[in-house]
Design brief:
Elements: H1 3-11, E1 14-17, E2 25-28, H2 30-34, H3 36-48, E3 57-61, H4 64-76, E4 79-85, E5 93-100, E6 103-110, E7 119-127, H5 131-142, E8 146-155, E9 171-176
Parallel strand pairs: 3-4, 3-7, 7-8, 8-9
Antiparallel strand pairs: 1-2, 4-6, 5-6
Helix pairs in contact: 3-4
Length: 177
């Protein structure tokens, strides 16, 4: 991605101070998604992180990750799979829990969503501490999927979320703050 396009994407983000709690500056992607040209540019940038590899399934993480992942899946000719908060998916699921700064959380995936050998790409809006992405990666591994990329629109580099992701997983971020 060229520098001009990257600057356009950065300008499309909105900083929301003190959300969801005091001292946090939330990176809001919704203004960018409301602009069709910026949304297309963002999705193409994420699609490029697949590096031309075959991708069978694109996993989106609850909730804004669904938007990004579904579009990328469509562009790649792949299926879309959701990783959701516990209790939100019908049928048989697999799940895992992980620690947060202020407690713990659990996510689930439908047990038949990924078949052994499926080539899987994770797409999410933000990589922060890495807990949710690491949990999603563990679910994919449990089902026998092969992760070809973990791609994020924004990475909060100062939180070092990459360190929580398994070694060997190719991690890509469009914007690093």
């Amino acid at each position: 991605m060229d520098a001009d396009s990257l600057e356009l994407l950065r300008a499309g983000l909105r900083d929301v101070p003190d959300f969801p709690k005091p001292g946090i500056v939330f990176k809001d992607v919704m203004p960018l998604l409301a602009n069709p040209k910026l949304m297309k540019l963002a999705m193409l940038a994420l699609e490029e992180t697949a590096g031309g590899q075959r991708v069978d399934k694109v996993v989106g993480i609850d909730a804004r990750g669904f938007i990004f992942a579904a579009v990328v899946a469509d562009h790649l000719g792949a299926g879309f799979i959701s990783v959701r908060k516990k209790g939100k998916l019908p049928g048989r699921t697999i799940g895992t829990s992980y620690d947060l700064e202020y407690g713990s959380a659990s996510v689930e995936m439908q047990a038949d969503a990924i078949s052994p050998g499926d080539r899987v790409m994770i797409v999410d809006d933000v990589l922060a501490t890495g807990g949710t992405a690491a949990a999603a990666l563990s679910l994919i591994a449990e089902l026998g999927g092969e992760v070809v990329a973990a791609s994020f629109f924004i990475e909060l580099g100062f939180l070092d979320g990459r360190a929580r992701l398994p070694a060997g997983v190719p991690v890509h971020s469009i914007i690093v703050v």
